[in-house]
Amino acid sequence: MYNISGITVEELLDLDIMNEGKILAGKKGLTNVITKVNVMEVPDIINWVEEGEFLLTTAFSMKDDLEGFRDLIIHLKEKGLAGLGIKTKRYIKEVPMDVLKIADDLGFPLIEISYDLSYSTIITGVLTEIVNNQTNKLYRIEFLDDLLSKEEARHKKAIEIADYFDFDTSLSYSVIVISNNTTSKSSKFNPRLTDYLYQINRRLFSIINRIIKNSYPKLMLGNKSNKIIILYGNEQNDSIKKVKEDISAFCNEIIKYAKFESIIDNIVIGIGGNYSDSMELWRSYNEANRAIEYLHRVENKRLAYFDELGIYRILSYEEIRPDLIQIYNELLGSLIKYDKEKGTEFIDTLKNYFKYAGNLKKISGEMFTHYNTIVYRIQRVKEITGIDFDDYDDRLNLQIALKIHDMIKAD
């Protein structure tokens, strides 16, 4: 679970004390996380700053060295600082254009701060918000864990404090899971990947919070490992069609903003079923995660409803995986071995056989292979597998085995 112990630059600007603050440049860095605040009034500050800091300055040390001001922005970005808050009008009238440009290019936020606002007020406000944020998130994560638990006692404990978290028990809910496209398991061995996943989650949180604030009041939001969990509430008398339309509109907004911020390739969205009894929410959560597993196995697809996965709804049950492996080996083992040893393309030919309902001419065109070669391959597939293509059950079993093959190949 990520240790989210800060606030974003965008959240800083939302604080009441910053009502006169405005961003001058570096909007792409609004999701940078502030973990502490520091004051800069000496030229060698770069030796004393740390990653995650938000610096405050009157630009006194830069008033006679505007070229050095530009270089400072580059160094602060390299050190991983969250941004720079500047009090103008005293030592510099305005930030030079070339400084604004480099901040924009780097995505490093420059915030103009009211001259009347004291540093101590800003520091106290930010640190208070960080502590409150962390405390609220920890409680919320525990609440969501209990709410989505299959254990009746844990779920009952969550319902008893549901009002505190604005969870409306009169609504029906669907669980939406947004997952980073890189597994958290890999990140344990790669600190840079861990930080990258963390930054993606922060940006997603920022996107979703903006969307929720505008149009979607009946949502709960939390995070777990490399996943963001959303409980989407609907009126209990809403039709399934309306529920899906509402959820699709919401998810498409997330996808739109993720494309805009160039993180769309990093996320997939799985959606579980809609349940009116909160005790059944664990099912929706489980379904959303299985939809995520499906999305990790396919290309160029960002969103999936569990109830639209067809045969994968059955094949995704972990409990039956040993049986699936056995079916796979019995029906396709000899064919896969033959392909590997002889360099043939029998598996691909078989997939296209079912894709084009046995139309050998279309298979030939799809695979850029002579028609007679396709005829020969199909005959050899029948001989190697011993499958009777005229038998409905045999054909069905073979198609399921090919689906299992795709799953195993993806894994």
Classification by helices and strands: alpha/beta
N-end to C-end Cα span: 23 Å
What fraction strand?
5-15%
Neighbour order of strands in the largest sheet: 2-7-6-5-4
Q: Kindly provide the radius of gyration, computed on alpha-carbon positions and rounded to a whole number of angstroms.
A: 28 Å
Global morphology: elongated
What would the average pLDDT be, to the nearest integer? 85
Word description of this protein:
The protein has helices spanning 9-14, 66-78, 97-106, 119-147, 152-160, 184-187, 191-215, 240-260, 281-297, 312-315, 321-342, 346-355, 360-367, 371-385, 392-410; strands at 7-8, 22-25, 33-34, 36-39, 53-57, 83-86, 110-112, 172-180, 219-224, 227-234, 267-275, 303-305. The strands form three sheets. A five-stranded mixed sheet has the order 2-7-6-5-4. The chain is elongated and about 85 Å long. A hairpin with a 2-residue loop joins strand 9 (219-224) and strand 10. The model is unreliable at 183-189 (pLDDT under 50). The protein has 15 helices and twelve strands.
SSE topology sketch:
Layout: E1 7-8, H1 9-14, E2 22-25, E3 33-34, E4 36-39, E5 53-57, H2 66-78, E6 83-86, H3 97-106, E7 110-112, H4 119-147, H5 152-160, E8 172-180, H6 184-187, H7 191-215, E9 219-224, E10 227-234, H8 240-260, E11 267-275, H9 281-297, E12 303-305, H10 312-315, H11 321-342, H12 346-355, H13 360-367, H14 371-385, H15 392-410
Parallel strand pairs: 4-5, 5-6, 6-7, 11-12
Antiparallel strand pairs: 1-3, 2-7, 8-10, 8-11, 9-10
Helix pairs in contact: 2-3, 4-5, 7-8, 11-15, 12-14, 13-14
